[in-house]
């Protein structure tokens, strides 16, 4: 806080002065940013799930030979809300780490940039994923792998997604990206920036680390139903716990569970199409 700002706050009522000082703190802004945006995502998803008209519009948008711009926008909005709800909480440790460093710098009178910029860079990467996921949903629906309710109609397809997501949990790329997500302080220490553009780029890089860590698990939504709120909450919790740094055993355990689920789904699908069962 500068001397001029402090002088102005001294002329405000005590309550307003304390509120202004609090929101001048990067850490307070970071917490408010994560809670507000994640809450916005969950509220949007809740409204879409509760409003049958919107849900039916989403379903119709994916059927037919052509897809209207309004239909694409509705589906993209759904994926955008899902991204805010599921991914922003996983970024909380990274955003709060930045805010803590910025808070310390601000106390020393050094220039800092609001955490909104790093969150904006992070979300820019994931909104790119939203565009890809929207296109993938349109393609999968036209290929008759998703039905009008955005649920997989193929056990083999669903099982393959589970197995692929589980196998990715053991990959070197997964663990390289997860390590960066779990330990953001060394990254910020080595790449600290004091301009909005520089901090936005830090958010972009952290967003890429997060994408490399979590993209496969996000695709599980195609297997369980794109609007399955229970799975959204479950996968979001798993990805958040992973980034807290509980150890590789947790990542491996999730991988084993996903592969096991995939094998079961494929097995049940194969059994259902066995000639004897079909008769």
Looking at the structure, what is the overall shape? Answer: globular
Largest β-sheet summary: none
Number of helices: 15
Query: Span from first to last CA?
Result: 77 Å
Roughly what percent helix? over 70%
Radius of gyration: 22 Å
How many runs of DSSP E, i.e. beta strands? 0
What is the oligomeric state here? single chain
The amount of beta strand, in percent, is: under 5%
Please, how many domains? 1
Low-confidence stretches: 1-10, 14-24
**What sequence of helices (H) and strands (E) makes up the elements?**
HHHHHHHHHHHHHHH
Overall mean pLDDT? 81
> Structural class, from secondary structure content?
mainly alpha
Describe this protein's structure.
The protein has one domain. Helix content is about 80%, strand content about 0%. The chain has helices spanning about 5-10, 15-25, 25-50, 50-60, 70-85, 90-105, 115-140, 155-170, 170-180, 185-190, 195-220, 220-225, 230-245, 250-270, 275-279. Helix 5 packs across helix 7 (about 115-140), helix 7 (about 115-140) packs parallel to helix 11 and helix 9 crosses helix 11 (about 195-220). Residues about 1-10 and about 15-25 have low confidence and may be disordered.
